[in-house]
Structures are given as C-alpha cells and as structure tokens.
Design brief:
Layout: E1 6-10, H1 16-32, E2 38-46, E3 55-64, E4 67-73, H2 84-106, E5 118-124, E6 128-133, E7 138-142, E8 159-167, E9 170-178
Parallel strand pairs: 1-2
Antiparallel strand pairs: 2-3, 3-4, 5-6, 5-8, 6-7, 8-9
Helix pairs in contact: 1-2
Length: about 190
C-alpha cells in the first residue's frame, strides 16, 4: 500500500491484539488485489443498554486506482458480533468479496451463454423432419417439437435453432425454433 493502514478505535480502548488481527487481514486483502493504495479500518464498540455485552461495528474503506470500496458490518441483532474478532472476520470477508468482484470485472470475466445449436431443415415428412447442422450432423425432430410455429409452413433450407438430446435412435431435437429473418444466431 502506498499509504499506511489507518486504524481507528471508537468507544473502546485501543488493543494491540485487535490491531494485529486487522493488519493480518489487510495483508490477506492485498493478495486479492495488489493495487490497494490505502486502507482505513474503524472498529467501534456500540453500547446497548438493553443488552448485556457490547456489540462491535467494523468498517473497512479501501482505495484503489479509480475505485473506493466500503465494507461494513453493523451488528444489528447479530449476537455473534459481541466478539470483536467475529465482527472483523465478517467485515473483511465482505471486503474480500468486493475485491474479487472488482478483479473479475477488471479482467472482463463475463459469463457468455453459448448459443443453442442451429442448422437448416434438410428433409420434411408428414410428422417429422431432419436438421442438418453446420458440422454436418443429422438431427431428427418430430412435428410436436416445433415451438411457436406451424410445421406445415416449414420448408427444406429453413434455418432453425434447437435443443438437442439423445433419443432411442440417436440425437434428436427436443424443441425446434424456426429462425425468422430478424433473428441473429450467435
């Protein structure tokens, strides 16, 4: 980090043990993203008069080139946050998830859905047809597999997309969609 860790204790005395735990967790965050320029951590004891013990609120502010991330864990009704180390763990886990999401976004890790298989009608009979795929495979389909279309309107050469499954006699299309003039196949 370019700027040293800033650690603030509120409504509680500073603790060397808590500071050591915070420094260890910050070091681990730097493993997820090496461009962290600064980190500010606030540990606050929240006094609750209707409750026996204090609960702790932890806030982690991270600065990276072009980004600022804030992870905060407010104890609310979470009695586990009566332990400052549990509150630290939860806040730093949230910060780590944000860093991981930023890493994926920066690396352009975007999920792309594969386009369903497509092909052209090769043969039509009274109740079934055959689709020829781009790689030359022959896929059987029944007229009842056609979705939102009229089987009797299909012609050899029409382009279709389909969902494929293995039938008793080989590959077959479980649903077939005629591709109109305005459909784009990816």
């Amino acid at each position: 980090m370019q700027i040293p860790l800033e650690l603030t204790f509120r409504n509680m005395d500073p603790s060397d043990a808590v500071e050591a735990a915070v420094r260890e967790k910050v070091d681990k965050l730097e493993q997820f993203h090496t461009s962290i320029t600064s980190c500010r951590v606030a540990v606050e004891a929240q006094h609750r008069h209707h409750h026996k013990g204090n609960t702790y609120r932890v806030r982690v502010d991270l600065t990276l080139p072009g980004h600022e991330l804030v992870a905060s864990r407010d104890p609310g009704q979470n009695h586990a946050h009566e332990d400052v180390y549990v509150a630290l763990r939860d806040a730093f886990n949230a910060a780590r998830r944000q860093l991981e999401a930023l890493n994926h976004k920066q690396k352009r890790h975007v999920k792309y859905h594969e386009a369903p298989p497509h092909g052209r009608i090769r043969l039509l009979d009274r109740d079934h047809g055959r689709i020829e795929t781009a790689d030359g495979r022959d896929i059987y389909f029944h007229r009842n597999s056609l979705v939102n279309g009229d089987f009797d309107q299909l012609e050899p050469g029409d382009e279709v997309r389909f969902d494929e499954e293995m039938g008793d006699d080989g590959p077959q299309a479980s649903s077939v969609h005629a591709i109109g003039k305005h459909h784009i196949v990816g």
